[in-house]
Design goal:
Oligomer: heterodimer
Distance between the termini of chain A: 28 Å
Radius of gyration of chain B: 21 Å
Number of strands of chain B: 22
Radius of gyration of chain A: 22 Å
Structural class of chain A: alpha+beta
Helix content of chain B: 25-40%
Shape of chain A: globular
Number of strands of chain A: 9
Structural class of chain B: alpha+beta
Number of helices of chain A: 4
Largest sheet of chain A: 6 strands, antiparallel
Helix content of chain A: 10-25%
Strand order of the largest sheet of chain A: 7-6-5-4-1-8
């Protein structure tokens, strides 16, 4: 047979089906410093340092970015933002919140499904650590159990400077596919 | 191969609207036309369309290999120099392609002749993959055609499978231009296929794409775009204001950058230069090729004596295409293209069935032939006013 043996259109026209991903709780560890991490039972300072370095690198990529420092401080509090090591296309400064801690897998449970990442504290909920995706993690350092989606790698959330830079070349045709 | 007049399903319009095929009629004229269908033998499909399509795809890869290592070729294709490294890397990194459509002139007898390759932004996908399939099943059920017919059309299965193995992580963004229901329909269908493959998708318009301070592209939620299917030609991306940010954006495009080499009409003279005499290729030249431009009268060029077609490098939907035949007035279609240069291709007129000029679009998904779609036009140049007709194998 040279044709598809079956064909369904599950989403088009009809109302979209909600896809529920499996969300298993994950054991994580949260620290503010390498020293604090090293003092945790079962954690060695080498791994603590490696995960800190990784989180610091991620911090640059995933921290929310702002082109105005006041906007950043409005979300994260006074003196809680820093200049990001990137620039706008026109050479302007970019701001991001300070990294307040980091999350890694619980070395005792050998959990590798936890993405090491930076943590932040927002102005409106300063008692909790939050991920770069603004998901609440926990209020205390040390070991915690969090929903699976919280332990996932953060998406690169960013701030859009401009839109509309694509599309100008399109002549007004019914279709340009062809 | 024959054209058979048949009865329409009386409810096809309402069915089309139910399944999202809302561009079935354009300006009051039918685009989907099931008052006739084309019948092929299995041998015609397999030997004359499917196998040559696979063969040509391989030849095209050789053209890409050559182009990325030859700045003269890249310049002849009018690809901006700032993109040469980017395109080269997209090929060397084996960035995966999704789909393409080879357009053939074929009458059921001689070898199919390749007219062009819509390698970057082909449309007519939805009607080929879905509505044509649906028609076949119902036409057999309602005894409009004999039971036991088949169709060269595993597009849907191939697309879902391709998305499963596309290594797309995180949300998959898909974009088309505003104001084109036909293009949006194509993209919405691809989104459907991606979701059936388990991907998490997000649709947006090309015009809504933003850029962040790091030079990453963003969607309307200010989320970074990691992988983007764009029904928007590479030559326009390269020309747009955001184009210069593409090479360092880290964004993975589908189709990948190297498709810019194949979607260009300059592919045709490159194929001819490298594989002259191939049964499925037509003699083709760049217009400024000294071998022909010095002759003055192109109808003196071997291979072009019975006429030729002039096509701008970036022409779409037949725009700015001219047919020149000795002793006859040229036939041409107006349009916005042409300043980028043009090619000259030997004339191999489309076959005419009951007054209709018929072109066969041969679909490739992940570079494998998996179906055809047939379009008819009243004129020898297939335009966006053409009609789509279903086909059967029996």
């Amino acid at each position: 047979m040279k044709r598809s043996s079956s064909l369904k259109l599950a989403f088009m026209g009809a109302s979209a089906l909600a896809l529920t991903a499996c969300d298993q709780p994950q054991d994580v560890a949260i620290f503010e410093s390498v020293e604090q991490c090293s003092q945790q039972d079962g954690f060695d300072s080498n791994s603590c340092q490696q995960n800190m370095d990784l989180a610091r690198q991620e911090h640059i990529a995933v921290a929310p970015k702002y082109s105005v420092i006041e906007d950043c401080e409005a979300d994260f509090g006074a003196a809680s933002c820093e200049i990001a090591p990137v620039q706008t296309q026109s050479g302007g400064s970019v701001f991001m919140p300070l990294m307040m801690g980091y999350m890694m897998g619980n070395m005792l449970s050998g959990n590798s499904r936890v993405a090491t990442q930076p943590l932040y504290r927002s102005k409106d909920d300063p008692s909790n650590f939050r991920t770069a995706d603004n998901q609440k993690v926990a209020g205390k350092t040390g070991l915690s159990t969090v929903p699976g989606k919280v332990a996932k790698a953060p998406t690169v959330k960013t701030s859009t400077l401009r839109r509309g830079g694509f599309g100008a070349s399109a002549p007004s045709l019914r279709s340009f596919g062809g | 191969m024959e054209r058979i007049s048949i009865e329409e399903r009386d409810d096809w319009r309402s069915q089309a609207e139910e399944v999202g095929f809302d561009f079935h009629t354009f300006d009051g004229e039918p685009y989907w036309d099931e008052t006739a269908c084309y019948r092929f033998s299995l041998a015609q499909i397999e030997n004359d369309i499917e196998d040559p399509s696979a063969d040509i795809e391989n030849l095209c890869f050789e053209v890409v290999e050559r182009a990325i290592n030859d700045s003269e070729v890249m310049a002849r294709l009018a690809i901006p120099e700032t993109f040469w490294d980017y395109i080269r890397n997209s090929w060397l990194n084996r960035e995966k392609n999704l789909y393409g459509r080879l357009d053939f002139s074929y009458d059921g007898k001689g070898p199919a002749k390749l007219l062009e390759y819509n390698a970057d932004t082909p449309t007519a996908l939805y009607e080929s993959a879905v509505f044509q399939w649906l028609w076949l099943e119902q036409a057999m059920e309602r005894e409009i055609i004999p039971a036991g017919c088949d169709q060269f059309n595993s597009l849907h299965e191939a697309l879902v499978e391709a998305f499963k193995t596309a290594d797309i992580e995180g949300p998959f963004h898909l974009a088309s231009c505003q104001g084109s229901p036909e293009d949006e329909g194509t993209v919405r269908y691809l989104e459907e296929c991606a979701r059936q493959a388990g991907l998490n998708t997000k649709f947006l318009y090309i015009e809504d794409i933003g850029i962040d301070p790091d030079g990453h592209f963003t969607d309307l939620d200010d989320m970074g775009i990691a992988t983007l299917f764009k029904l928007y030609p590479w030559e326009w991306i390269m020309n747009d204001e955001f184009g210069k940010s593409v090479p360092n954006s880290g964004l993975r495009f589908i189709e990948p950058g190297w498709k810019a080499i194949l979607s260009n009409k300059g592919l045709m003279p490159l194929l001819w230069e490298m594989f002259e005499g191939h049964p499925n290729l037509l003699p083709s030249f760049f217009e400024d090729d000294p071998r022909i431009s010095q002759l003055g009268d192109l109808s003196m060029v071997p291979g072009l004596t019975s006429g030729y077609v002039r096509k701008p490098l970036f022409s779409r939907e037949g725009s700015n295409v001219q047919i020149i035949r000795p002793g006859q007035r040229p036939i041409s279609v107006e349009g916005p293209y042409g300043s980028e240069g043009a090619i000259i291709q030997a004339l191999h007129p489309l076959p005419v069935f009951e007054g209709n000029h018929t072109v066969i679009g041969s679909w490739l998904v992940a570079s494998k032939p998996c179906g055809i779609g047939i379009r008819e036009d009243d004129s020898p140049i297939t335009k966006d006013s053409s009609r789509f007709l279903p086909h059967v194998i029996y």
